[in-house]
Records
---
Amino acid sequence: MLLNRIVLGLSSGSFYSLAAIGIVLIFKVTGLMNFAYGNMAMFMAYVTYTLVSLGLGPWPALAVVIAVSMLFGYVVERFTLRPLRKLSHGSMLIVTFGLLMILEGLATQIWGTQYKSLPELITGRPFILRGNFGIVVFRRQDLLLFAVLAIVSLTIFLLYRFTKIGIAMRAVSENEKAAQLMGINPNRVISYSWMVGTAIGTLVAVLGAPRTYVAPTMMIYYQLQGFTAAVLGGFDSLLGAVCGGLALGVIENLIGGYISNELKTTLSLAIIVVILLIRPQGMFGSEEIRRV
Amino acid sequence: MLEVRNVTVTYGPVVAVKNVSLRVEKNSIVAILGANGSGKTSLLHAIVGLNKIASGEILFDGERIDRFEAHEVVKRGLVLCPDNRMVFQKMTVLENLLAGAYLRKEDLSRDFDFVFNLFPRLRERLKQKAGTLSGGERQMLAIARALMAKPKLFMLDEPSTGLAPNLVSEIMKAIKQINELGITILLVEQSAYAALRIAHYAYVLQTGRLVMEGPSEQLIKDSSVIQSYLGGR
């Protein structure tokens, strides 16, 4: 029972982690909380639905949509946010709010209010592990999710640590002017982070669609939990985003299983408030490094 | 090599630099001296493209560069070493140096040798986060990082600020060594003596205007005058 709860928790936690990675990636480089993050992903889920209903298999559809989402992320940043970047941070936040509402309205206009369904990317009987610890069930879709989370976070980690573009991203996120003095073009780095961030959000939406159905509000919960996971992890740490998401998922499921299913969100958020009161910088957030 | 013609820099209604003209000849060391708030840093930032100029023009090797963004200016070999608070504190010394070499495509081993020769202490601190370095080490890192970009014209913003006197002379010695390798230097300084000792030619800025210029040997003789412009010490 406990082990199965944990596995289930890790599975919803993986969604939160992925959502958090995308949010943090954009935040780290641009300093901007993208409120439209979830709805951009929702919109891409609808595009996937259209592609699949036109007869494309779910995997090719996913590949196409990931490419489209990168373009989408680029266009949103380039044409709605970049013109404001040097003028007002507040206006940029409002723009992302506006996008959130526009996309929701647009999705309803185009696809209607009826929920659509997307097939799971892999189907089949779950794997069952038996041992003296009891029985643990792994659904195939969950294993896929774990694999996606592992691949995404590892790729981003390697990119960040060991590549030129990774160094450029970290440089811009720490000090944009200094980065420019190295010949780094901040606009390009910001474009990249929006492209990758939007693509990761889209992964969450498409992988989560079999559970949530494709609907204008499908991503609200994931975005909120992704945001919470990011805060729990420290908000400027990608490792924190991953661990924060997984921890949140497990806490939520344990509460849902042992205390009350209705209270799982409330209580898990309360626990996080307590954790943050004790450790305001989150699990992995960087405190200001300062020499005394 | 660098020519600044009648440049004015403003921040809203505030005029930071007014009608300044100066030249930097190839292979020389030129110093810009001035007190706090005299517009030195604003002028440097304008040259490198971090500030837009209100009027005038800036030419580098005959090409107008005053419309370019900073990262495009750097591509042309004009590299600014900012003050030492601008090292990437969350990155290691090695990563800082790699960031400095962002535009370079060729093998970097000779550049690493060069900067470690200049500042052996950086080699010992390679894996350390820059935020944990001392002020002097951070200044060395800032200089080394900028050198990794292989500048043609190397500009330094107050490299001696906040350093102990023996460290100042160490840094000045390093700057002279860099110049002897054929890198032209534009040095912005508050401590006039240290800068005049290594510079060939110097300009003195006061509240955004040029008030004095001349070969260093000559200005050293007038150093009491300069000190009065710099606020004396």
---
Amino acid sequence: MALPSASPPEDPVPPPPDTLVAGWKSIATDWASDQDVFKRVPWGKAMMWIFLLSDTFIFTCFLTGYMSVRISATAPWPNPSEVFALTIGGVKIPLILIAIMTFVLISSSGTMAMAVNFAYRRVRGKCAALMLATAAFGATFVSMQAFEWSKLIAEGVRPWSNPMGAAQFGASFFMITGFHGLHVSVGVIYLCIVAFKVLRGDYERSGNYQIVEIAGLYWHFVDLVWVFIFAFFYLW
Amino acid sequence: MAHAQGQQHPVSLYLKIWGLLFVLSTLSYLVDYFHFQGYFRWSLILVLMLLKAGLIVSIFMHMAWERLAMVYAILVPPLCLLVLVGLMAAEADYVFSTRGIFLGQ
């Protein structure tokens, strides 16, 4: 059986320059072009963006549900600043664990952004090292979340009741942070797989490092969701 | 050509944005630490949140360099969610008032 001599091109052939206009007019011409709408965007990246768009709707539904139960609760809402305070060295610091988790996740986004940069420059070692650092930050984040969950469960917080006030607090907390933590955990596995394939040279052979940027999109989205959870659930 | 082999931007840009995100996160933590209350607190939280989200989406996720057809396809649909939030806020206010009446709380 004859094998094809060359692998099919990964990107569609870029359209001739005269069909690519800029600015407002580009929206009309791109959407009306009767071919691919997202010009010069690889299909994998476009699909990841559309997945992230759907995920945005899921997380917003959770946050909107949280908003509804918080507005309509007749019992006082527990003060997150006190619920998530930690006593370090005899001093009670409000919300400190959540602040550290925020910094850990932002750091992971920074290392991920640089990993994408090194991937396109084909510096495989640095790219894989930065991706594994990102995954390590992610694993740290999930561990701190596990600590936070255990602490709250030990204090008697349940999805249906808690000793600090409105019963809806537990349901919102476990639902929102649980779903976000699941995303982080999946992201850690995803990053480890891609980093392994970078090290093995898979993308060197195909000459296409787009997958690192696509994995990066997913990871930055996880950080993005945390920005909103931090603002609305922990600070509000 | 940026897209021939993906997005290429200097590492220093990412480091600057990283630093900026650290500063903004510290500021939003300080909002809680100094116990600001009321509308001042809520507007600070929202402004810092939107600044951080904007930096992550535009620089880290490279949205600033994508074609507009793509940018609008991704960023405009979430605006529908603002309608949902508005409807649910009104509904939750109503539920709260009926609970006050019927549960006598």
